[in-house]
Design goal:
120 residues; mainly alpha; three-stranded antiparallel sheet; DNA-binding
Chain lengths: 120, 120
DNA sequence: CATGACGGTATCCTTTTCGACACTATGTGC
DNA sequence: GCACATAGTGTCGAAAAGGATACCGTCATG
């Protein structure tokens, strides 16, 4: 069951900062959103893009993002199952935020050596 | 002892997004940074601005931010003790990120009713 | 008949996070 | 001589987050 976070933000001025953080916090949400800016993706397509995330975790993160109205989940009643994930307008509105995070990260986050290569 | 996070960011493309998140994630860090954009503050000045954060948590968050090179801690060898916290240039460079988070939050995060009033 | 792809669940367990609370040292004011 | 302010630290325990692993049904392929 996806946890319900951020019911309240009673942390004083500045709290909408924390509020936003709780939407995109959660180990894989940032990356999931990042990949969905690419366009609509199926479950296993996302999975392949984030190999270190377990299936259970990915499901959880997707469910939470969906509950927060950031992504849409479309099920095709087929066999084998087909489920597509895409950003909602609200999710897409996070793009400047994710971009700001990425810009700062690119300039300030040192990646593990083998990854820096892979990313290059 | 402040935990050491983000030793590795092996989460595939998009990971500098996660990387940045781990710097400002941690329940009170966003707010602390937000208040320090105001200027240098003493320990209890920060504390009063974030009443829901316990002393121990505030100390932890400040220590982690310091370990990450985002804030500077200046101790005056006086009695009673006086310690000032301020942003480092690296910390200040996070301003666009925090701003992006706040802009989105102001537009999209619904505050608890009594707080919306206080913020207005 | 067995295997694999698909999109998940269910269960268990460990790690991490966070809050409550008590305690510290020193100097000043009452 | 007692309380108060400052800036913390230590310990405890609950709760949440996250990882490992196994399992599900259906269809197509070999």
């Amino acid at each position: 069951m996806p946890r319900i976070r951020h019911e309240r933000f009673d942390c004083s001025p500045g709290c909408t900062v924390e509020g936003t953080l709780r939407y995109i916090d959660g180990k894989w949400k940032g990356v999931v959103l990042y990949h969905l800016f690419e366009g609509t993706l199926r479950f296993n397509e996302i999975r392949r893009r984030i190999p270190n995330c377990t299936q259970r975790m990915l499901t959880n993160q997707l469910r939470e993002l969906e509950a927060d109205g950031l992504i849409a989940r479309k099920i095709y009643p087929e066999v084998p199952p087909k489920v597509e994930y895409s950003l909602t307008p609200r999710g897409r509105s996070l793009e400047p935020v994710i971009t700001a995070l990425k810009v700062w990260g690119d300039a300030n986050v040192t990646l593990a050596p083998e990854i820096s290569q892979a990313a290059a």
